[in-house]
Design brief:
The protein has two domains: 293 residues, 2-methylcitrate dehydratase PrpD (Orthogonal Bundle), CATH 1.10.4100; 118 residues, 2-Layer Sandwich (60s Ribosomal Protein L30, Chain: A), CATH 3.30.1330.120. Helix content is 51%, strand content 5%. The protein has 21 helices and six strands. A four-stranded mixed sheet has the order 4-3-5-6. A two-stranded antiparallel sheet has the order 1-2. Strand 5 and strand 6 form a beta hairpin. Helix 2 packs across helix 6 and helix 19 crosses helix 20. The N terminus is likely disordered.
């Protein structure tokens, strides 16, 4: 059951008494409203901690980007009122509304393309869910000063949000023809959390998810692939739309039923709620570039290591992958967005430097060795790889040396897919690579301990409050 509930406003006309159509309920609404930590297996709780730590690390890195700074300034200037000044922007600490916190936080995490994702959704749930959840918990603690949130409220709701958002994403992708960004379906998961945390009933929850689905940003993913800019994956906009939907439904605003949840054709996607956990279907990115580029990066690094080659040995690189990956065609980036949505640049950078960290996707992009390999690289599609997408993302590379030798990689998938996940230690090391330059080693180590120390069964544990206080300050 909910642990934080805002008292119902009895002055409003109840939705069920209005002369308006009420969405039919499915077991999904009851599942959401009654979900508790007791329903979660231990390994899923642990996976929730891993994803939470990963998102915080990416948030820290994203706060240093031009996108992160612009969106925080925007949310503070245009979403801040005297009534909302106590809500704090992630990585910033200045005041904003719940909608502003969700918008800015989602876009700040999305500013560095290093956060988790799920293959069948062709996108990312966590980057929109986490800032929206923090905004909702903070909002409720301000509205109800006698009630505070606990570890359970943070981690249990985050896990629930993943399960609802991911299923919404799978349903939306299989029921419509357009290739939309993650914000379209993240909005539905956020709306579910909003109704649950704000104390909504099943009717309000149904309306909230319907509003969120209707107004969620159905932005065109391939448009931002072809023209990489700060609009990115729509995650922040989806988080904002989901919170807005929750507040609107609470006030009596009605929405058409969420087709992704109620349509009979999508029923099988929801039938395994509570038995199949998509939390463990998340891939983790070892590098801060588009996941579609990472199979080729992995393949190139594998060949370099196996043949003990150095960058000065390589004269040409050919990448063979799937259509969407080949569309990442930027050769020489102009900014971090075009670097993250490039295939040639990160492959060339990996060959030349043996790594891809934030320095490889940050200005200046003037390394002559990387530039030479990126501009001459050949990109080719393979129909076998096209047919396998999105469930599997494949690539192979052919490296030609200056003395005429050709080395071809195996058909390769990216590192840290769900079937070969990183260890806790590898995730912690990735976190420190992203977070230490921004937070400092001491604060970063404290966050690792706090996240893995979250205890959903102990209502006296306040790790969640400390975590939120640490990340709702200026980095």
């Amino acid at each position: 059951m909910n642990t934080i509930n805002k008292p119902k406003n009895t002055s409003k006309t109840p939705i069920e008494t209005q002369n308006l159509a009420v969405p039919r309920h499915s077991f999904v609404e009851n599942y959401i409203l009654n979900f508790s930590h007791q329903d979660i297996p231990d390994h899923i709780i642990h996976q929730g901690k891993r994803c939470l730590l990963d998102l915080i690390g990416v948030l820290a890195a994203g706060s240093t980007t031009p996108l992160g700074k612009i969106i925080s300034n925007h949310a503070h200037r245009h979403f801040n009122t005297n009534e909302t000044k106590e809500l704090r922007l992630l990585g910033d600490g200045r005041g904003s509304s719940a909608l502003g916190v969700a918008l800015a936080g989602g876009m700040m995490i999305d500013a560095i393309d290093a956060h988790d994702g799920m293959r069948l959704t062709k996108g990312h749930a966590g980057c929109g869910l986490l800032p929206a959840l923090i905004a909702l918990l903070e909002y409720q603690s301000i509205e109800n000063p006698d009630t505070n949130y606990h570890d359970d409220d943070l981690l249990t709701n985050l896990i629930l949000g993943y399960e609802i958002a991911i299923r919404s994403g799978i349903a939306l992708h299989q029921s419509v023809s357009d290739y939309h960004t993650s914000g379209a379906w993240v909005a539905i998961g956020v709306a579910a959390l909003a109704s649950r945390i704000l104390g909504g009933d099943a009717d309000q929850l149904s309306h909230a998810m319907g509003i969120a689905e209707y107004h969620g940003p159905r932005s065109q993913m391939m448009r931002t692939i072809d023209y990489p800019t700060m609009v990115k994956d729509g995650s922040g906009w989806g988080a904002m739309a989901g919170i807005s939907a929750g507040f609107l439904a609470q006030d009596g605003f009605t929405g058409a039923p969420a087709v992704t949840v109620t349509a009979e054709t999508e029923g099988p996607i929801w039938a395994d709620l509570g038995t199949v956990w998509h939390m463990v279907d998340q891939y983790i990115k070892p590098w801060p570039v588009c996941r579609w580029a990472q199979p080729a990066v992995t393949a190139a690094m594998d060949v370099m290591a196996a043949q003990t080659l150095s960058a000065k040995d390589i004269s040409h690189i050919e990448v063979v992958s799937f259509h969407e990956a080949v569309r990442l065609a930027t050769r020489i980036p102009e900014n971090t967005e075009t670097a993250q949505y490039s295939l040639p640049w990160p492959v060339a950078a990996a060959v030349c430097r043996g790594q891809i960290n934030t320095s490889e996707i940050s200005e200046p992009f003037d390394d002559p060795a990387i530039t030479a390999l990126a501009t001459s690289m050949t990109l080719t599609e393979d129909d076998r790889y096209n047919d396998a997408f999105p469930a599997q993302r494949f690539a192979h590379v052919i490296l030609t040396t200056k003395d005429g030798q050709r080395f071809t990689s195996e058909t390769t998938q990216a590192n840290w897919d769900p079937d070969a996940p990183p260890s806790d230690q590898e995730m912690i090391e990735k976190f420190h690579v992203l977070a230490d330059p921004v937070l400092g080693r001491k604060k970063a180590e404290a966050l690792v301990d706090l996240v893995f120390g979250l205890d959903v069964k102990n209502r006296n544990s306040n790790n969640a409050k400390v975590i939120i206080d640490l990340i709702c300050t200026a980095f």
